[in-house]
Write a structure and sequence with these properties.
One of its GO terms (molecular function) is monooxygenase activity. It comes from Asanoa siamensis. Keywords: FAD, Flavoprotein, Monooxygenase, Oxidoreductase. By secondary structure, the protein is of the alpha/beta class. The protein folds into two domains: 3-144 and 346-481, FAD/NAD(P)-binding domain (3-Layer(bba) Sandwich); 155-340, FAD/NAD(P)-binding domain. The chain is 28% helix and 22% strand. The protein has helices at residues 15-27, 45-48, 60-63, 79-92, 186-196, 220-229, 231-255, 257-271, 278-282, 300-307, 391-412, 437-440, 461-470, and strands at 3-11, 33-37, 99-101, 104-111, 116-123, 126-137, 161-163, 178-182, 201-206, 212-215, 294-297, 310-314, 317-321, 324-327, 332-334, 337-340, 353-356, 359-360, 368-369, 373-374, 380-382, 416-419, 429-430, 448-449, 478-481. Strand 19 and strand 20 (373-374) form a beta hairpin. The longest helix has 25 residues, at 231-255. The radius of gyration is 24 Å and the shape is globular.
Length: 512
């Protein structure tokens, strides 16, 4: 079996993988790379999900790439528009020839004697293999082949159609039918108003309420900035504005949860019919941003409730019946279609098994370094975006830092890079400090984080700008070596200290 070799093997051709490929092309153009995509199309999430109304819940000025302006008038965009944007990015940056479809990575093993990853891949023609100096996991954190779908008592007795949003059938017809959407997260609040326009009636059935806020589909200030400053400058300033706004809202909710709760309730009450039981359906038992806030563009969910085409029900499911759902309260919800918007199945590193010098890597025993590498695992990087802001903001910073790291290794002739905590007794906690159910279900299968930088996983953009863009690449807890001689380098040269007086590092990290 022929083995193909590249400098960097990227896993995943979604928003993270396309971003990684573009940064490699522009920042370290001498590097060879391939992007392996298990499915038959690029775009990741935005190609996978086909349920009604699929859209972003972050504005595209921050969810888009820093290097490619989002030019549409609508800042909260539908999946087809986002998918077109991603594929246009790939084409503009010459990434299409680098993407291999129907290539699913099963496992990878690192050999310190050669400083190479050997990667086992299921390709269209069967098993294939790659070797790579670096393995870059850009597949997000959830399973694409199966969403979270708990079994409900009596489910098999239901005579209608049961659908999970992650596997939406193209031929599903809900026109004139009674629909119950089980769930309270971003998927549910998207599906309900999208189906309410043509269904006979849509009920959103939730066990626990979620904080929901309305957001304009169009960013009036952003559109004005792009009009008067031009697309690039206007986009850049809108991006800065929205980053600041997101950060301010998150900090306000964290520091003043009671005030934030009252404010959200007041805004919800204004959007709902007079006398509506706001506290029953829109008052969660946790503080704002303990879980991700749900955004509804132009208040479409509230509009559907006001129009009477959609209804909120907060209760527990007793069992499914032949024609609907019986609730713990005794109420029966008639249904022809039941949508189980019950969430995602999170998995670490796309389910790839890793070994280092013959020893299996137990991901839950590792500690994340700068939120992008794993302790004790050489030449391996991964991307997990923000949970309290736009995912892509962190993608850009991690990719920039990764390219600086590659440039540093080339400059000094290093072939191996491995993070190790100096203090083996450092306290650790879960990698994601997030109370969402889909995270709690798998928390013991994810990496850990430490209690100090660089082992602390930041969820703050401005903190990461300092850590990943402005700060040095090298660190006393990041060790470098060479194949067949993995002795650690003790100099840890700072890339901000150029080799000659007066020189300043350019974006590749090399003096100019």
């Amino acid at each position: 079996m022929a083995v193909e070799h590249v400098d960097v093997l990227i896993v995943g051709a979604g928003i993270s993988g396309i971003g990684a490929g573009r940064y490699l092309k522009t920042e370290v153009p001498g590097k060879t790379f391939v992007i392996l995509e298990g499915r038959g199309a690029s775009g990741g999430t935005w190609d996978l999900f086909r349920y009604p109304g699929t859209r972003s819940d972050s504005d595209l000025h921050t969810f888009g790439y820093a290097f490619k302006p989002w030019l549409d008038q609508e800042a909260i965009a539908s999946a087809p528009r986002i998918l077109a944007y991603l594929r246009e990015t790939a084409t503009e940056n010459g990434l299409d020839p680098h993407i291999r479809y129907h290539h699913r990575v099963r496992g990878a093993s690192f050999d310190s004697s050669t400083a190479l990853w050997s990667v086992d891949v299921d390709g269209p023609a069967g098993a294939t293999a790659f070797t790579a100096r670096w393995l870059f996991c850009a597949g997000g954190y959830y399973r694409y082949d199966a969403g979270f779908a708990p079994r409900f008592e009596g489910q098999d007795s239901f005579e209608g159609t049961i659908v999970h949003p992650q596997h939406w059938p193209e031929d599903l017809d809900w026109q004139g039918k009674r629909v119950v959407v089980i769930g309270s997260g971003a998927t549910a609040v998207t599906i309900v108003p999208a189906m309410a326009g043509t269904a006979a009636h849509v009920t959103m059935l939730q066990r626990t309420p979620t904080y929901i806020m309305s957001m304009p589909t169009k960013d009036a200030i952003g559109n004005a900035l792009k009009k008067y400053l031009g697309p690039k400058r206007g986009y850049a300033w809108t991006r800065r504005k929205n980053i600041t706004m997101q950060r301010w809202i998150w900090r306000f909710c964290q520091r003043h949860p009671d005030r934030a709760r009252r404010l959200i309730r007041r805004l919800n009450a204004r959007s709902l019919p007079p006398g509506y039981p706001v506290d029953e359906h829109f008052r969660p038992p946790y503080n704002p941003w303990d879980q991700r806030l749900c955004l509804v563009p132009d208040g479409d969910l509230f509009a559907a409730i006001r129009a009477g085409t959609a209804e909120m029900v907060t209760d527990h499911i007793d069992r499914f019946t032949a024609d609907g759902i019986l609730l713990a309260s005794g109420r029966h919800l008639p249904a022809d279609v039941i949508v189980t918007a019950t969430g995602l199945n999170v998995q670490a590193l796309g389910g790839i098994t890793l070994t280092v010098d013959g020893v299996p890597v137990r991901v839950n025993d590792t500690i994340a370094y700068k939120g992008m590498m794993l302790s004790g695992v050489p030449n391996f990087a991964f991307i997990v975006g923000y949970t309290n802001s736009s995912w892509t903001l962190k993608v850009g910073l991690l990719c920039e830092h990764f390219c600086l790291l590659l440039a540093h290794m080339d400059k000094h002739g290093y072939e191996i890079c491995r993070p190790e905590p100096a203090d083996p007794t450092m306290p650790t906690r879960p990698f994601l400090d997030f109370d969402a159910g889909y995270i709690r279900r798998v928390i013991d299968h994810l990496p850990r984080q430490g209690d100090r930088l660089p082992w602390l996983t930041s969820m703050h953009y401005h903190t990461d700008v300092k850590l990943l863009r402005a700060d040095r690449v090298t660190d006393p807890e990041l060790h470098f070596g060479r194949a067949a001689n993995v002795a650690e380098d003790d100099q840890h040269q700072d890339l901000r200290r150029p080799d000659r007086p007066g020189a300043t590092p350019d974006r590749s990290g090399l003096p100019r």
